[in-house]
């Protein structure tokens, strides 16, 4: 049977989630475990109740804000653009925090495994203190801070034999690092919890503003529901995207008017290029009802419609013997999706194995396709601005993306089309657009 001091030393290596049975501590008594669990549940309940009270107050504020904006289209659009920027910033902060925690957890596990292998050395340090009449800490309370204090005491009192001192110095350094890691992890976890609550509130605001925009559009289109039903039927009949776009823009009145508006704007504007100052001024106008610039002139200025990892680029092998016709981006669960450019909605709804599909007519013969969303927040015929929220990602990829990319997280598929053919979207993306590598992981 193990000595009590060796058991005490082993208790230092209380398990980290996923570390395995070899790292588990000596069990505390049932009463002690029950009390610890009760306190933990109470702390979690208090935190949830505090978040809930804050969220309810925030939702009341959001409802009042949206009500005040309903009759001011430009203000409503500007608020939507601001809301999606806030959501994106929150998603980025969450990813950074998750990456930090991943690194801290990995280092903590490495240290615990190393300390577990040195449990006999720890037991010897505790034994040296016991020989001097000092009582070691109870096994149920032992942790890195407790053992570090014992090690420092042993070093200070000179109770260690010379050949142990170097090893114990290294042990003290590792214990100190482990104690610091535990504090940093607790701090990062609390910050992550607060950030998640903040992101949840920002998404509620974004959803409310998007719904207000849809209401604004649908209120002027009495037959929109009937048109959406007809559009769904056309989508079931369409063999491919080209067929779907063609039928939508000739048979559905809202999509037909959107296509007509795109053609009229293109003809009226002509090919006169805008200089940088004119482009910026046009983009700042949240009240615009036509594209700020011809799509052809937007090269090098568009932002990706979602934050994430670029899995497949245009022209890459598609895994089925062909080539990719668009860009596939792995995203967070619930990530906000925005319009890459100004354009009119000519289709929104499910399509074959693409999941929820959105098609924008950007004018000049260009169509922008976004597929794989869980929910679309714009309607047929609606004119949307670059950066305006248009949808929300779900929890899993649509069947088409799961097969071709092998991804398990949500995947947004982006395709640019010109006169019925897919084209490489790369020249349109801004150089400021982040482009993580495909081997990076997206958390949800």
TrEMBL record:
Cofactor(s) annotated in UniProt: Zn(2+)
Residues annotated as coiled-coil are: 171-258
Region span, Disordered:
22-41, 425-444
**Gene3D superfamilies associated with the record:** 6.10.250.3150, Glucose Permease (Domain IIA) (2.70.70.10)
- Could you say which residues form the signal peptide? 1-21
Molecular functions (GO terms): metal ion binding; metalloendopeptidase activity
Domain M23ase beta-sheet core stretches = 324-425
The UniProt keyword set, sorted, is: Coiled coil, Hydrolase, Metal-binding, Metalloprotease, Protease, Signal, Zinc
Composition-biased stretches, type Basic and acidic residues, lie in 32-41
- InterPro entries per record: Cell_wall_metabolism_enzyme, Dup_hybrid_motif, M23ase_b-sheet_dom
User: What protein name does the entry list?
Assistant: Septal ring factor EnvC (AmiA/AmiB activator)
Species annotation: Phreatobacter oligotrophus
